[in-house]
């Protein structure tokens, strides 16, 4: 017995020593010219997933919402929230990008605080006329959105809420740029907890219905904002630097059309569906969007960490190679996850929804594909951000929205509401390929775009075959799923990369 304990102790010591060695190797990757795995992983875990927690909450709240609301009422919530979000884009004016751009150039901490304070005050001043306009025209807007006029006041509540969220996000951005992960995660988690707690109270316990959702939202953001101001008074200086805000606007405004158009692209399918059908279909689309949020959560988390990291290494000699490697590997992981989600869609529907939402599954499948094409667009913004020619991003997005609307109008009358999502995919792909062509002239990064496009076509075929096969027996799709995943790995990875993975598996 004593001998056995001694052997076990030696094995445990050996095991933990091996772990220490592997951690040391992993950390050293960030010190090598081509090794940024540790650093970007850290950025994604702390800041990406920290910011992505709010999206996770939306997914986590979905079973509560679907248990209380019919697709029609969920459609009301979605169309009001989307319209408010679109209107408040005019408040942000893409100023967050200028904060990220100039924050590190300001060496003095007081100047950095003035930058944050000036931006917040500027946004609050802009919000006053917008809220007044919505108050005056709330009834007309509700008719335009096919909402019962009794719900018109919810538009005002929603716009105030989004304004609060915008200011809260700027303060969180300040913590992030100062590399204060504890504060960032703490206050982000506070908002998430408040939103979940108050939504549960107002919808489940008080049974306030649609109104309860918006009341919970505004109170959670207001309380969180009060807390962050009280505990971080030193951030705010009652001083406005007009020259600084003008400088920020000069940087931000050329990229603003891109932000506005990309926001329009996000909400456009809802309005296309509404023009063809009704709020019931909008509700089905909204549920599918929340379900596909499982994938977009990962994409969003990656994007939040990737943008500052990619700019940090842009002057490195091997930066272009790193960009391409990250692009291929990340896309492969996302595509595999999307395939898994399609294959397990019935299971996901049972967890997050009920029989009322079964017709949302086609929306769900194609929204996964739309998420992947949206991920591509974000990557192809990078060359133009580096050379500060964001006007080309706006141009590609403009073409994207034009294609989306024209093809969307045609497709919804041919194949129904699902045509709006197909049009979104086609618009995204058009934008990606336009950016790729333009980047060849200005700042070319040799992305494996052709392989990625062929993989997307393969995924589109996989979706169609899955819809057909699942009508008979869903188990029949499993062998095809394994075949498709194997094909993706072989197609997207180089031979030496596959060999390395196989050797690691053997070890």
What are the salient characteristics of this protein?
mainly alpha; 21 helices; 507 residues
Can you tell me about this structure?
With about 500 residues, the chain is mainly alpha-helical. The protein is about 85% helix and about 0% strand. The protein contains 21 helices and no strands. It is globular. The model is unreliable at about 1-35 (pLDDT under 50).
Low-confidence stretches: 1-35
Beta-strand residue percentage: under 5%
SSE topology string: HHHHHHHHHHHHHHHHHHHHH
Shape: globular
- Total number of helical segments? 21
Q: Note the gap between the termini.
A: 31 Å
- Give the integer mean of the pLDDT values: 79
* Main sheet: strands, sense, barrel: none
Helicity, as a percent range: over 70%
Pairing-aware structural class of the strands and helices?
Answer: mainly alpha
Radius of gyration of CA atoms, rounded to a whole number: 24 Å
**Total E-strand runs:** 0
């Amino acid at each position: 017995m004593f001998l056995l304990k001694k052997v076990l102790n030696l094995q445990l010591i050996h095991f933990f020593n091996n772990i220490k060695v592997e951690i040391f190797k992993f950390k050293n990757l960030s010190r090598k010219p081509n090794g940024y795995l540790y650093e970007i992983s850290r950025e994604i875990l702390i800041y990406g997933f920290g910011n992505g927690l709010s999206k996770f909450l939306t997914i986590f709240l979905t079973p509560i919402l679907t248990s209380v609301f019919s697709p029609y009422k969920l459609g009301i919530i979605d169309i009001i929230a989307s319209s408010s979000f679109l209107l408040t884009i005019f408040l942000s004016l893409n100023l967050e990008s200028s904060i990220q751009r100039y924050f590190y150039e300001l060496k003095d901490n007081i100047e950095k605080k003035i930058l944050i304070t000036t931006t917040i005050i500027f946004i609050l001043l802009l919000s006053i006329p917008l809220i007044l306009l919505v108050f005056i025209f709330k009834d007309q807007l509700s008719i335009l959105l096919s909402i019962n006029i009794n719900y018109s006041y919810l538009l005002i509540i929603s716009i105030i809420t989004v304004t609060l969220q915008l200011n809260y996000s700027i303060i969180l951005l300040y913590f992030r740029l100062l590399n204060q992960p504890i504060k960032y995660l703490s206050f982000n988690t506070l908002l998430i907890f408040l939103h979940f707690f108050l939504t549960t109270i107002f919808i489940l316990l008080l049974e306030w219905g649609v109104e309860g959702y918006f009341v919970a939202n505004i109170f959670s953001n207001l309380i969180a904002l009060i807390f962050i101001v009280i505990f971080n008074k030193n951030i705010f200086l009652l001083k406005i630097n007009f020259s600084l805000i003008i400088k920020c606007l000069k940087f931000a405004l050329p990229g603003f059309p891109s932000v506005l158009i990309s926001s329009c692209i996000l909400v456009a399918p809802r309005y296309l569906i509404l023009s063809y059908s009704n709020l019931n279909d909008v509700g089905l689309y909204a549920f599918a969007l929340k379900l596909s949020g499982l994938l977009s959560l990962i994409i969003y988390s990656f994007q939040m960490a990737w943008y500052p990291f990619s700019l940090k290494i842009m002057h490195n000699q091997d930066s272009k190679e790193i960009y391409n490697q990250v692009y291929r590997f990340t896309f492969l992981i996302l595509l595999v996850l999307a395939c898994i989600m399609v294959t397990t869609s019935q299971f996901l529907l049972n967890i997050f929804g009920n029989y009322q939402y079964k017709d949302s599954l086609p929306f769900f499948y194609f929204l996964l594909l739309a998420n992947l094409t949206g991920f591509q667009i974000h990557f192809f913004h990078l060359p133009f951000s580096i050379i500060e020619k964001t006007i080309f991003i706006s141009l590609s997005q403009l073409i994207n929205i034009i294609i989306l609307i024209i093809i969307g109008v045609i497709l919804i009358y041919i194949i129904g509401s699902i045509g709006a999502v197909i049009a979104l995919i086609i618009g995204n792909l058009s934008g990606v390929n336009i950016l790729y062509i333009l980047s060849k002239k200005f700042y070319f990064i040799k992305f494996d775009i052709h392989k990625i496009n062929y993989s997307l076509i393969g995924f589109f075929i996989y979706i169609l075959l899955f819809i057909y096969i699942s009508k008979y027996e869903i188990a029949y799709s499993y062998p095809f799923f394994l075949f498709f995943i194997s094909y993706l790995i072989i197609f997207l990875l180089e031979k030496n990369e596959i060999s390395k993975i196989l050797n690691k598996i053997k070890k």
